[in-house]
């Protein structure tokens, strides 16, 4: 079928992606992509290398300001800022906005790593003006989260939140990066997932019994700061290179 024969935009996108290209088209497109990827890495490294110790906060972009998790994320970011850490978020609305707002109110560093998306994403007004970065590539953005974070605070969220969380756990589990705190906030939200990991994944021996120790589950801002402080009291803080 021709591109114009498809009824909706999603089918047209699939057809366009599957369209056969000449070797010259492939080589040209890939070459430009390499330069774009390099530019995003260079820009990210240059801007993020100066921010100091930070904690990343993840969660749903769809969470509204009147939601209890939005309000809790704001309190957590405020408390973390007062404890001396900067805050990194995905730069958008929802939990990300709450994280940057808490950092802003706490007088801390407030970083937004924005991503170009066809929906949901627009930068929030609580990011420091010189720390609002934009990315086209998810994988470049994820490198920035891990490379320059000393901890992940994971609020309730969807597939993107789970992706960030499990990638960090995998990198630590496989010793590709140094261990840092991964804190899940909201025991009622996360307990079903953890129970499934314990009763299915762990029993099938698809992870080691100690792997779940990489995760801490808490319910309030004081517990978040306590986990961070307990972990780092014996270390010198630095970017997780």
TrEMBL record:
Keyword Electron transport in record: no
EC number(s) given by UniProt: 3.2.2.n1
Keyword hit for Hydrolase: yes
Top-rank EC class of the record's enzyme: hydrolase
Coiled-coil segments: none
Keywords for this protein: Cytokinin biosynthesis, Hydrolase
SUPFAM superfamilies xrefs: MCP/YpsA-like
Tree of life domain: Bacteria
Catalytic activity: AMP + H2O = D-ribose 5-phosphate + adenine
Pfam family, one: Lysine_decarbox
Family membership noted in the UniProt record: Belongs to the LOG family.
Protein name, per record: Cytokinin riboside 5'-monophosphate phosphoribohydrolase
């Amino acid at each position: 079928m021709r591109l114009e024969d498809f009824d909706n935009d999603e089918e047209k996108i699939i057809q366009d992606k599957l369209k056969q290209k000449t070797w010259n088209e492939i080589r040209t497109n890939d070459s430009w992509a390499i330069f774009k990827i390099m530019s995003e890495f260079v820009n990210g490294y240059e801007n993020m290398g100066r921010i100091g110790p930070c904690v990343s906060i993840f969660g749903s972009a769809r969470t509204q300001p009147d939601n209890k998790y939005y309000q809790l994320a704001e309190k957590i970011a405020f408390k973390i800022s007062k404890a001396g850490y900067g805050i990194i978020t995905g730069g958008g609305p929802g939990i990300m906005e709450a994280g940057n707002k808490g950092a802003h109110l706490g007088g801390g560093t407030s970083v937004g790593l924005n991503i170009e998306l066809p929906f949901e994403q627009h930068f929030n007004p609580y990011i420091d003006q010189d720390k609002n970065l934009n990315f086209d590539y998810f994988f470049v953005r994820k490198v920035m989260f891990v490379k320059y974070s000393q901890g992940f605070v994971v609020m309730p969220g969807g597939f993107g939140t789970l992706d960030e969380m499990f990638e960090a756990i995998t990198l630590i589990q496989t010793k590709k990066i140094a261990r840092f705190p991964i804190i899940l906030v909201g025991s009622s939200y996360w307990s079903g997932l953890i129970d499934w990991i314990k009763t299915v994944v762990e029993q099938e021996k698809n992870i080691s019994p100690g792997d779940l120790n990489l995760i801490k589950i808490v319910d309030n801002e004081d517990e978040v700061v306590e986990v961070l402080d307990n972990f780092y009291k014996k270390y010198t803080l630095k970017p997780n290179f």
